[in-house]
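idk why but the lab printer keeps eating my pages so im just putting this in chat instead. protein + zinc ion:
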Amino acid sequence: MAAGRRQELAQVIVDIPHRDLDRVFHYRIPETLAGEVEPGREVWVAFHGKLTRGWVLELEVATAELERAFALQPVEAVNGSYRLGHDLLALVPWLARETLGTKADVLRLMAPPGPPVRPAAWVLLAAKPDREAIAFWEGIDPECADLLRRLSRAPQRRMKYASLTGKGGGVPPAVIDRLSDAGLVTVRQLLPKLAERATMERAREKAHQTETIADPAAKPASITNSSALPPLFPEPALTPDQKQAVHYLTEALDAAGRGGDSRPFLLHGVTGSGKTEVYICAIREALARGRQALLLVPEIALTPQTERRLRERFGSQVALLHSGLADAARRQEWQRIYRGEADLVVGARSAVFAPLPRLGLIIVDEEHEPSYRQDNDLKYHARETAMERARHCGAVVVFGSATPALETYAQALSGRFQLLKLRQRPAGGQLPPVDVIDMRDELAAGNKGMLSRYLLKAVEERLQRRQQVILYLNRRGFSTFVICRECGTVVTCPHCSISLVYHRHGEQLHCHYCNFRQDVPERCPHCRSRAIRYFGTGTQRIEEELRARFPGVPVLRMDRDVAAQEGIAPVLDAFGRGEAPILVGTQMIAKGLDFPRVTLVGVLAADASLHISDFRAAERTFQLLSQVAGRAGRAREPGQVVLQTYCPEHYCLQAVQLHDYEGFFRREIELRQQLGYPPFARLARVLFSGPEEPLVRVAADTWAEILRQQAGAVTMGLSSGLAQPEIDVWGPAPAPVAKVENRFRWLLTLRVKGDRLAALRAALIAAEGEYSRRRGRPAGVTISLMLNP
Ligand code: ADP
Ligand code: ZN
Ligand code: ZN
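predcted complex ->
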């Protein structure tokens, strides 16, 4: 090493799915790659003798000790096609800690979609480029032609990427990118593509077109055409509420532009109150200031209508990221965003990691949706991640919802979020009246069917008026519970206040938090009636009842079975064309549906989701039913909603009936406080799964024992001396879905009062360490940790 020259080392996170390896490893930067190894770059390094992908977190000046301590190996290759921005890099340690995942797990989410491409493959020559192709590229892009020429002369069929792109190699990585549509491609894939493009270009030239090179990000034809049509969503004049919201958001954008911080916003307004219109205005303001915008939507809300509306306003600046895209298309969109060619990115959960270089506004629409949390792999929540990312890139954050998550609304009331309200529906359209039908009366009147007399009569009226009806069976959660058909009492756990779940096997009721069990009671514990039984119903039964009552009237059905056999779209299309006046379905039809001829929505078992074993049961039910009710009012004809229930006096259903979010919030937050559930406590979950249930039990029991010992030690003051909050350990108990793909699942639930997530995290990490030191651990059991379930 030349004297006086400061040698730099790369701190690399290697892409190995192992928690014990979740730390930086040091690598030497060889002369040929000096200047190309930078923080945020993907590199390939030798790890335990294998060429492995990794990412550079930081550079560090080499010291004699470091050099001595590690026999430093060199970085083998750099992937020049992308570099993670500093705002994304800053998320890496934070998100790994927040989710109890590894830094490699986080980085994998940020990398371009699709499997990694090994550098050796990048320069594996499959065919030699022909001279004509080189001559052609000479005219368009001399640098690319030069690369092709060199490849055609390569002595071996294999070349190290580093030797092509490194110092002395002379080919800037960007040149390789420019030649590829998707960024990371192998040369093997690249050559046929080049030939193809050359042919295409020649044809174009013949057609006397002026364009010199095809733009891979060119707009699809349909969009170019649509600008000729009158817009479907003309821009309205804003209402005073909307104006005020846009005003505050614009102010915040300006403050952010000056480097100031702003509180996140909560935009609260019912479906149809014009939230999307506010987003659009805010996005435009962000773009006008040279910043970019990210709009997150739940997967299901990414309808063609939303897309059309945004494209009408923002044209080819829009990029879409969703799970429906094929790998290649996803990669292509990713590269477009990375190059800064898309100023508005619309996508589901994982789009929160989209590589926007000038991000200035992040909107999370329907922020309460559970789909923003990823349940497998890295268990992150897009809402929290958006907030943290915004802090690092100086972006303004907006959460929007008609029914905000309880935690979010509590933040808004406490002033940590800024609350913006939209109070009316600008396009008119009243919220529909909601009738609540007490099913206990039906039983008393001798009606044992699933449809109340009131609802049947309402259906009959719609049939006579040639309007359409949707009957929605609330079956969320899948599990069944036991209810008294006379007084509506549902059997709950004496320890957790959570509904007990009926298990046909053994005729027992189980608590899925603490594993309390009891036999199915013969009489209602409240009113002593014998009409107490488990509640489980199907869409087929409703269909049969309808056919019996209205012979000859076609009925369409949409549930899991139909979706698996025919798919969802054909059934919905048929209903849209009016092929049947009645559609019966499960939660699959609750969202994203706009059928103008539907004037009646009936919800059967409106209370079913109140009794799933989850502390958020009431919140989820309120959100779901409000959504359904919001839909019915969008028709031109006035709509009506009928809710059938065994507990009409439940505050959740009453709030739905009155379209009263605030009322619901006040009752629910009070209960959460009394029972010690979030936001007044923090929960964590440990999920054990494996093919052999006894082994799964052993693992779960061992963990429970370790955690309880720790908690005991804390209570008895044996811990490190600092006052530690007390942690409750519940279970183990079978998971709500007790068996998935032949793997048995058991759960431990942990709770700490207050906002002391760090204590839960520490307990879990300590338990994990202790468990890994135990001898005779059961084989084949997967253990997965989740904070804030
Ligand atoms: P949300 O996102 O809250 O459901 P939207 O922004 O989609 O509401 O608005 C609902 C309907 O009202 C849309 O058809 C939209 O075009 C229309 N709309 C929104 N704002 C206005 C306004 N200020 N004046 C008239 N119509 C409006
Ligand atoms: Zn009873
Ligand atoms: Zn319990």
